[in-house]
Amino acid sequence: MTAYAELRAQLATLTTEAFRPELAEIDRLPTLEIARLMNAEDATVPAAVAGELETIAAAIDGIAERMARGGRLIYAGAGTAGRMGVLDASECPPTFNTDPSEVVGLIAGGPSAMVKAVEGAEDSRELAAEDLTALALTADDTVIGISASGRTPYAIGAVEFARERGALTVGLSCNAGSALAAAADHGIEVVVGPELLTGSTRLKAGTAQKLVLNLISTLTMIRLGKTYGNLMVDMRSSNEKLRARARRIVSLATGAPDAEIEAALTASDGEVKQAILVILGGVDGSTAGELLTASKGHLRDALAQTPTR
Fold first, then answer.
1. pLDDT tens-digit profile of 160-219?
2. What residues are annotated to the active site?
3. What are phi and psi of 144, to 5 degrees?
4. Are the beta carbons of 56 and 232 closer than 8 angstroms?
């Protein structure tokens, strides 16, 4: 059997690649009816994710434990899956004030593959190993391989390389019994079924990946003390909208008048979490910073050490 024939046979066994004969004439339907069909397909994705929540939660606890020791969260994938990882990583600095080096997205073929396919990149385990070597991977890091099929060599190679070096590994796929899940410490398989367009895994599979990555990054940051309740107290105020949001968050957390909020933010160099501690804890900006450092950034723990608590 030729390599092409073997790959074609593999794809034929994957749920994400299955052909749906009942949709064979979809192009002849009215636009509104196609829209309703696609919307109904999308509505099934959250239930598929719900079936994997125990595995996802266990992975998050492991990730948070390592990141608390200074480890990094690294996504690795090709094509749509790689783009999902890069997207999630890129949103962590403005949302949670993480350093760009703390949550990293690797896409097969490098940054240019975000907008243009790099032929053959996803087929290389070695390329994944090279990309992780360039990051100086450590045992405190976590590598999440992302692949709708669960067979993409780049994603599997990333997980295998990371596991050999003692890092925590997660395999996120959309097919049951995938090689990617089998290679990882935590195998997350969100089986969303065949796509509306045969093999177009940017659809339900891509949506499932986005939902799972939302869960992983958001809950990990909650565990790391990046929030206070459901407020983004570690957000970065890098533009006017975000500066306004920062003031609103301080207001929601403290109920303080505007003048007191402005004074606290000034005393805290604009740091939301620190400003909240100044107001609720009755301390100055410098003391608030010291308390947060001692509590490893957990605002509730820092508040417990203030005179007003």
1. 999 999 999 999 999 999 999 999 999 999 999 999 999 889 999 999 999 999 999 999
2. 91, 122
3. -110, 110
4. no
